[in-house]
Amino acid sequence: MEIPHEKKFFLCDGEVVHNLPELMERLKTMDDGVFQHHVNAERNDFSTWVRDVFMDKKLARELARVKTKESMAKKLFTSQYQ
């Protein structure tokens, strides 16, 4: 699913994620610092993006519970967005 430019996910390192399959792939090579910037004790930007842009509350809740790139990639892989 392609989304409008203004709803794409802009990583703190300047990279842009266009959809959920791309996020799953990017997680494999994403710098730990970039991941921790977006997923930490205060927030989970990926979960928020999934909830607000893709309107998938169930997947957003699942992603909100994960704290590692590997766990998040696995959740995305097992979701309908693979």
Overview of this structure, please?
The chain is mainly α. The protein has 5 helices and 2 strands. The protein has helices at 20-29, 32-38, 45-53, 57-64, 69-78; strands at 9-10, 16-17. A hairpin with a 5-residue loop joins strand 1 and strand 2 (16-17). The longest helix has 10 residues, at 20-29. The model has no long low-confidence stretch (mean pLDDT 94).
Summarize this entry quickly.
The chain is mostly helical and about 80 residues long. The chain is about 55% helix and about 5% strand. Strands 1-2 form a two-stranded antiparallel sheet.
Uncertain runs: none
Radius of gyration: 11 Å
* N-to-C CA distance: 11 Å
SS-derived structural category: mainly alpha
Q: N-to-C SSE series?
A: EEHHHHH
Strand content: under 5%
Descriptive key words:
82 residues; mainly alpha; two-stranded antiparallel ribbon; globular
Secondary structure topology:
Blueprint: E1 9-10, E2 16-17, H1 20-29, H2 32-38, H3 45-53, H4 57-64, H5 69-78
Antiparallel strand pairs: 1-2
Helix pairs in contact: 1-5, 3-4
